[in-house]
Amino acid sequence: MSVYFHLMSGVSVWDTGTKEDIGTLRQRFKTLERSTYANPRMTMPDDSVGMVAERAPPLLGGIIFIAVGILVPFFIASQEPLDGPVLILMILVPLAFCSVGIFVLSRHLRGDKWLFIHQTHLELRHEKSDKGIPEAFKHIPLSDVVKILSHKRISESTDEDGSTQISVSHVTSILVYNPDDPESKKNQELCLCATDIGSPTRDESDAISAALNLLILGTPLPSSAE
User: Fold this and answer.
1) Contact between 160 and 128 (Cβ < 8 Å)
2) Which among 25, 45, 138, 205 is least surrounded, fewest beta carbons within 10 Å?
């Protein structure tokens, strides 16, 4: 199976061009709380604002993949004569399912991925593990944040039989400066994506984008929700 992702940028974008000095992080969070863009996913129990950027996959999903990988060889052996192609299938299919299962289990054990907004920097970390987050994204100066945008992500998956399935998801992406390409300060296509924050609807994705632009870049909230 092959998967392709298409980023549809230019949708609901607030950038650094309209940044203003509108107080400390706590003051900006209070402004957010009083607005229609307030989101229960964002909390400020101390000196930083935290929100779950990505939920950990359920434990059951990993167990199911591994169980299928273990049971498939027995099923194939009971249905087909054990010639060359069938033996190869008995090796490859369990390997694929078990690999996916182990990957899902490892992500589950790391816990949810959190985004923390501090006064001077961003921090990404997993709830239960220090692994899985690139070093560059564990401490991101606010000055390195180039753009925060809400957009639709279209994924196309092609199965072995050639059939194609298309799904659309709504995400808010935090694009940051790429030290390997100085032009990324001016060209978002060259930026690194620190994280994507998924939302069930376009409206929520837009609201999260507006809120993060306020909290991270100091960009005033739009006058009304689109």
Assistant:
1) no
2) 45
User: What's the farthest any 2 CA atoms get from each other in the chain?
Assistant: 73
Cβ contacts of 13 within 8 Å, gap of 6 or more: 147, 149, 150, 209
Give the count of alpha carbons within 13 A of 72, CB side only.
19
Distances from the Cα of 109 to the Cα of 50, 63, 132, 216, angstroms: 20, 13, 11, 29
Express each pLDDT in 168-216 by its tens digit.
889 999 999 999 998 988 888 999 999 999 999 999 999 999 999 999 9
DSSP states of 70-127 as a string?
Answer: HHHHHHHHHHS---HHHHHHHHHHHHHHHHHHHHHHHHHHH--EEEEE-SSEEEEEES
SS3 category, 7? strand
Pairing of strands 145-158, 164-176: antiparallel
> Tens digits of per-residue pLDDT, 104-129?
888 888 889 999 999 999 999 998 88
Q: Are 179 and 135 in contact (CB under 8 A)?
A: no
Q: What is the pTM of this model?
A: 0.74
Pairing of strands 145-158, 140-141: unpaired
**DSSP class of residue 43?**
B
Query: What gap in Å lies between CA 226 and CA 222, rounded to an integer?
Result: 9
Residues 6+ apart with CB under 8 A from 30: none
